[in-house]
Write a structure and sequence with these properties.
175 residues; alpha+beta; 5 strands
């Protein structure tokens, strides 16, 4: 098991897509130094991300996604948690399970969003939304989430820990 954890610890991304009722999948998020979220994404950045995400989805024949403030809240809250807990690697090596035991689904539902399908992509240390998106595109499991099938809405969270290390959380869903 230690051998597996060492191999997974070098991955800077984690992603899962599930339909309501399925179990979440994930991999380890890299461990930053420092702590405490100090920067969050703003409304202009959310709309900018929507534009680049939808440009990508259109280039592969996908439908556009729209911004949802509830999914955005779930994404931002978890980005803050990840930045504030720099050594946290997730429960049983699953970074989609928060230090408080929360799951992607429970964090989404806590905002009042009731998904029939949802996905969560995590990334660390990308300097801007374009490089975060490119990292997800370059990862097959994350790219599946971006391509999205039934996923129609999104929220994007960003938190920056001391030392400039970022935590990106993209939550996609359909009600």
């Amino acid at each position: 098991m230690l051998r597996i954890l060492v191999c997974l610890a070098v991955l800077p991304l984690a992603g899962c897509v599930v339909k309501a009722g399925d179990s979440a999948l994930g991999a380890l998020l890299d461990s930053p130094d420092g702590g405490g979220g100090v920067r969050q994404i703003n409304a202009v950045e959310d709309m900018s991300f929507a534009e680049i995400l939808n440009t990508y989805r259109a280039s592969i024949g996908g439908n556009p996604v729209t911004f949802d403030s509830r999914l955005n809240q779930a994404a931002q809250d978890y980005a803050d948690v990840l930045a504030a807990n720099p050594g946290y690697l997730g429960s049983a090596a699953d970074p989609h399970i928060g230090p408080d035991g929360s799951t992607t689904l429970s964090r989404i539902q806590a905002t009042g969003y009731v998904p029939t399908a949802y996905a969560e992509n995590l990334a660390g240390n990308q300097g801007n939304e374009q490089t975060a998106l490119q990292a997800w595109i370059d990862s097959p499991s994350h790219d599946r989430n971006l391509r999205g099938g039934p996923l129609e809405e999104f929220g994007l969270g960003l938190a920056e820990a001391s030392g400039g290390r970022t935590r990106w959380v993209l939550v996609l869903g359909t009600e």
